[in-house]
Amino acid sequence: MTSPHPTASAPAGTGVTAAGGFRAAGVTAGIKVSGTPDLALVVNDGPSLAAAGVFTSNRVKAAPVHWSEQVLKDGQVSAVILNSGGANACTGPLGFQDTHATAEKVADTLGLNAAEVAVASTGLIGLRLPMDKLLPGVELAAAELSTDGGRAAAIAIKTTDTVEKTAEVAHPDGWTVGGMAKGAGMLAPGLATMLVVLTTDAAVEPAALDAALRAATRTTFDRVDSDGCMSTNDTVLLLASAASGVAPEQDAFAEAVRAVCTDLALQLIGDAEGASKDVRIDVVNAATEDEAVDVARSIARNNLLKCAIHGEDPNWGRVLSAIGTTSAAFDPDALDVAINGVWVCRGGSVGDDRDLVSMKDRQVVITADLHAGSASATVWTNDLTADYVHENSAYSS
Amino acid sequence: MTSPHPTASAPAGTGVTAAGGFRAAGVTAGIKVSGTPDLALVVNDGPSLAAAGVFTSNRVKAAPVHWSEQVLKDGQVSAVILNSGGANACTGPLGFQDTHATAEKVADTLGLNAAEVAVASTGLIGLRLPMDKLLPGVELAAAELSTDGGRAAAIAIKTTDTVEKTAEVAHPDGWTVGGMAKGAGMLAPGLATMLVVLTTDAAVEPAALDAALRAATRTTFDRVDSDGCMSTNDTVLLLASAASGVAPEQDAFAEAVRAVCTDLALQLIGDAEGASKDVRIDVVNAATEDEAVDVARSIARNNLLKCAIHGEDPNWGRVLSAIGTTSAAFDPDALDVAINGVWVCRGGSVGDDRDLVSMKDRQVVITADLHAGSASATVWTNDLTADYVHENSAYSS
């Protein structure tokens, strides 16, 4: 029943271990009933432990999010432990104790400070984690740590992802940014059921890491909106070991972080649950960037349009009805909309012949010109398919 | 491929002709390619022509909405002409001329003032109406007008509705409120692709009609949110003939209007495209009614939850993650959620055994207790199904 994902093929890199100073592992602890890998460990061997993180803006936050937000406060992370097979969300004080115990176990096993161990979880909400399996799994993962373990770690954080997701950028000056991501449903603003760990061997202080990370996520992960649903567990971490000994110029570093985030974000869209189309929505000539994002998101969340895209129907009327629900500046009689480059709507009315539009390819581009300014924004989404319904009405981690 | 709608059976009444002073007709003008009825006419024979209307809040409005908003400004409507088979939205100045010509044709045929003829359209956006078929259809409809033509009119406004929708309330004091509705997709706040005509033989002035209508729609049609999509064409009209000679007390009249609106709104939900479940979301103990509505709507629009309901999975975690995206007052650790009466989430964590929840019936009730005040609100929605995707990826009117 799972649809093919033509754009979802595993990249060749090693993700979090592409940068020097990091070891990683991915093991099968038995958390998932499926018996597939479910526990990943990423360790920063330094010399620097600088780190930054962004988390879900959902007010219902999972225990590991509460924990890791605290860990990140001093900008130091020595290790990240990530499990699939359970979100540890809505599990109350006992769930928080489980997260705490997991961090302590990692610290004990590796000789670290638990207050510098971040925790991330993904899977079903409302279930306690099987700690009798998770804690021995930590020892297993610690024993497997290696400087080429990034791919195994990326595999172990998958839930409904069909492939693991990694990305790397190597800068000519001798430093690298790499990362891994998981996420195939609940993709939405404020980051949604995505777990991402980025690593770099550049020498960058926590404040600069934070600035680069927030700038990158704002226009990448925050603008991936597969199904409008926001997770309780989203976590994006950036760890810097300084192992390269190179302190990069901030702009170059921020650009590398953005490139890795863009790569991973597009991998998330390409592997979204049940999707058969990857849809890029470009809103141009908006009065402000915020309004461009609002309009793009409104289009991205229109179920009727998403069904039409699945049916390869260039239904621009549904684009206009979505734009009309926003408060952005525009004149309804001045809206232009193109689908895959054909301006099927001009001046809020019928434009070029819709039969000119080909929607056979997986990639679909919708352009909305508001004629209200010079700001623009891009949001990525997917079509809505029967396979999406199937996967999410019969979900198990 | 169309799913059965166990709750969608045609009611027995005559809808807009249940009240005295009204004639109606429904005919096949040939606007729809399917050859089914597509043109409805409702005429108020007075003695009063008092009327009120509410329209879509979408900023991209169809030509008939622009027209009818003008007609309603003086609170007088002598006739309503409604077509299915084309929304006449995003059709530019020529589309507006088509609406104008339709009203003129009705006026000429019946000896009325065109400025008192409301027009409503539903169907695909972005296509001109076939006026060579619509205008002769007006004459056909005029010839068919009768005091029991309400059912034929209700049938003629259907698009993907599987059954026509009518409702009536007869008051002991000798006056009646009746109505008809269409709408099976794009159901959302601000009224969405619903066309509704309500009639009464009570003697009520336009201002009082307007007050009763706005009070009723605010808590009925405005809280039906099948798929979060807002139409360009929504129109709800209330016409009062005063044929009963009875001037009702305002509260009793408003209550009757609300009862008819509730009845029709639930018929819309019961016949929503592809739905297999009707879902009532009760948010209780909110700080304000607006916050209760925000939370209920956020739950109603969560695609993942709607898929889970389709799969009869009492996935309360998805309810909490939806609540968490709102800015309503609540403590995440004090949220209680019941599904079909079983409090599966207590204090933001695991509550009663989810295996106690039966979701076999078409009716599903989700209750969210915010413990933040004493306000409450109810929103109705549906599950998300493969049939919904199918109907909307292969839509034709």
Summarize the topology.
Two copies of one chain form a homodimer.
Chain A: E1 22-27, E2 39-44, E3 50-55, H1 63-72, E4 79-83, H2 92-110, E5 117-121, H3 131-144, H4 150-156, E6 165-170, E7 176-182, E8 195-200, H5 206-219, E9 235-240, H6 250-270, E10 278-286, H7 289-300, H8 303-310, H9 316-323, E11 336-339, E12 342-346, E13 349-350, E14 363-369, E15 375-382, H10 386-393
Parallel strand pairs in A: 4-5, 8-9, 10-14
Antiparallel strand pairs in A: 1-2, 2-4, 3-9, 6-7, 7-8, 10-15, 11-12, 11-14, 12-13
Helix pairs in contact in A: 1-2, 2-3, 5-6, 7-9
Subunit structure (chains A, B): Heterotetramer of two alpha and two beta chains.
Organism (chains A, B): Streptacidiphilus alkalitolerans
Catalytic activity (chains A, B): N(2)-acetyl-L-ornithine + L-glutamate = N-acetyl-L-glutamate + L-ornithine; L-glutamate + acetyl-CoA = N-acetyl-L-glutamate + CoA + H(+)
